[in-house]
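Dear colleagues,

As part of the handover before I leave the project, I'm documenting each prediction I ran so the next person doesn't have to rerun anything. This entry is a single chain, and its sequence is reproduced below.
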Amino acid sequence: MDVQGAVAVITGGASGIGRATALELARRGADIVVADLNDTRIDEVRAEVEALGRRFLGVHCDVAKDADVERLRDEALATMGHVDIAMSNAGVAMLGPAEGLSMEEWDWILQINLLGVIRGARAFIPHMLERGSGYIVNTASVAGLFAYAWDHPTYITAKFGVVGFTESLALYLRPLGIGVSVLCPGLVNSNMGDTARMGGVDDISRWLQSMPLEEPVEADAVGLLVADAIRDDRYLILTHPEPTLDRMGRRGADLDGFIDAQIEHLPHPPNLYQ
């Protein structure tokens, strides 16, 4: 897709990967709709996009709410006339043992990280199919390709769901002229820690022992990767391609062996009941 003159809607677009992607697409000639809960940051991105000479719309939006995502679609279409790119990027993090987290805590992260992506697809796919063109980008994680730790079960569950959902969208939409990409970043320098939660444990120090991933990359670099993937119609977007593809290959070749190796390599989890 040539993004010159396109309209891109990005949830979680006021900071981190979302902001970086918005600015990179604007540099390439796209008009931008940013959906976020942080109105101050929305206004900051507005100034940056408008300084690049592109149109901008900011929408206060909670992707965990059907009505908010539907209003985002309606305001984007009313203001911009059409939508070419829809990036579901809003996300949060939570740590804690699978059995110790409340159902309310599970619901919080799944409503945002998984169902928020599904709401975005439901909102914008009909419009794209009517036009016969468009592009969907869903932000997952390397956590959706392999379980990299034992202390992020909610996050890993949600991201595995995003990867599976997006792959099914690719099978459905690509033959109909709609591009589809899934972004699976490793560590990225961002403000995601601002909203991260911890649950299900009394002594946090016993739990925070995750296996470190590769060195983090800057969000601006991820924005470049996303814009290039849209241009090239590339499905899988990785921030750390060599180690990620290596793990995916080993996992696919021998899942039992891969899990055994992960267990051997990870810090030993605590038994919270002893």
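The longest strand covers residues 178-184. The first helix runs from residue 16 to 27.

All the best with the project,
I.
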